[in-house]
Amino acid sequence: GIHWGWFGVTPSLMVTPSIAQSTTGILAMLDEECLRPGVVNEDTFLTKLNQLLATHKHYESKETQNARRVTDASLPPRCFRIHHYAGKVTYNVTGFIEKNNDLLFRDLSQAMWAAQHALLRSLFPEGDPQKVSLKLPPTAGFQFKSSVAMLMRNLYSKNPNYIRCIKPNDTKSAMVFTPELVLAQVRYLGLLENVRVRRAGYAFRQLYGPFLQRYKMLNAQTWPRWDRGDREGTEVLLAGLELPAEELAFGHTKIFIRSPRTLFDLERRRQERVAQLATLIQKMFRGWRCRTQYQLMRKSQILISAWFRGHR
C-alpha cells in the first residue's frame, strides 16, 4: 500500500476537481517537478503552485495571502493550505520532492523475486524478469492517486452506509465535552441540514414486514399472528392505536412516520406490552407447573390410599 503519511498529506488533496486534475493538479505538478531537469526543490514546487493556483478558492499560501492583503500568522512559511469539505488543512512542503522520488531500485525488486518466496513475490511483482520495464518507476504521488482512484471505484460499486462519529474533546477524556469542537463537527458533517430535511418530511420509514413484525403485539387483531398481507396488517395495527392521520403515510412498500415523538410513543407502548406478555408467560408457566405438581401429588395420594385400604 502507499502511505501518503510520509508527506503528512491526507486524501483531501484529491477532493477539489481542479486541484486533483491529472495534468494540472498538485500531485501531477509534484511529479513534474521531480522529473524536471535543473535545480528542483520544495521552494520551486511551492512557487509553481502559487503561480498556477493563485486564484483558486480552495488554495491558500503566504504569497496568495499577501496578494490579497490577508494577515494570518497561523500559516507558516513553506506551507500551503487546502480548503475542503471538513475544514482547512495545512501542508508543509518540506521533504515532498525527496520522498516522492524515494523509489525502490529494480535490482532490489528482482532480488526479492528471486528469493522464491510466495509472500515476497506478492509484495514485489515488479521484480518478475518477464515484466521488466524500461519506464521510470511510478512516484509515490502517482501510486497514491492510483490507490485512491481504485478505492473510489470500489466504493461507488457498493451501497454506502454512513456512521457519523463526533469527537467530544481533544484530550480523549471521558465525560468531557468541548462545545465549540462538537458544534464545528456537527456543521461540517451536515447534521443540521439533515435534521431540517428530516423534520420537514418523514423522520422514520421502514418496510411493512419488519414494522408489522416489531409492533404487531400492540393490537389484538394482529397478535399473535397475521395471515394476510403486510401492508394490510400495518394499516389494521395503526388504526387500532388511534394515531393522528397526519403523522402517517403509506407508500408502496414502506410505512412513513412524520414525527419522532410518534415513533417514541410506539416504542414505549411496545416495551410496556412486552413486559405484559412476559408476565403472562410467567403466569401461565407457574400455573402449569403448580397444576402438574398437584396432579402428581393427587395421583400418588390415591395410589397410596388404594394400597393401604387393600392391605387393611
UniProtKB/TrEMBL annotation:
Give the Myosin motor domain ranges. 1-271
Provide the GO biological process annotations.
actin filament organization; actin filament-based movement; endocytosis; sensory perception of sound
One Gene Ontology cellular component term attached to this UniProt record is: brush border
- Database matches in PROSITE patterns: IQ (PS50096), MYOSIN_MOTOR (PS51456)
Molecular functions per Gene Ontology:
actin filament binding; ATP binding; calmodulin binding; microfilament motor activity
UniProt entry keywords in alphabetical sequence: Actin-binding, ATP-binding, Calmodulin-binding, Motor protein, Myosin, Nucleotide-binding, Repeat, Signal
Against SMART domains, the record matches this protein to: IQ, MYSc
Q: Which residues form the signal peptide?
A: 1-20
Homology family: Belongs to the TRAFAC class myosin-kinesin ATPase superfamily. Myosin family.
InterPro entries reported in the protein's UniProt record: IQ_motif_EF-hand-BS, Kinesin_motor_dom_sf, Myosin_head_motor_dom-like, P-loop_NTPase
Task: Note down the stretches annotated as region Actin-binding.
Answer: 148-170
Q: What is this protein called?
A: Unconventional myosin-Ia
* Residue ranges crossing the lipid bilayer per the database entry: none
Q: Which gene encodes it?
A: Myo1a
Report the Pfam families cross-referenced here: Myosin_head
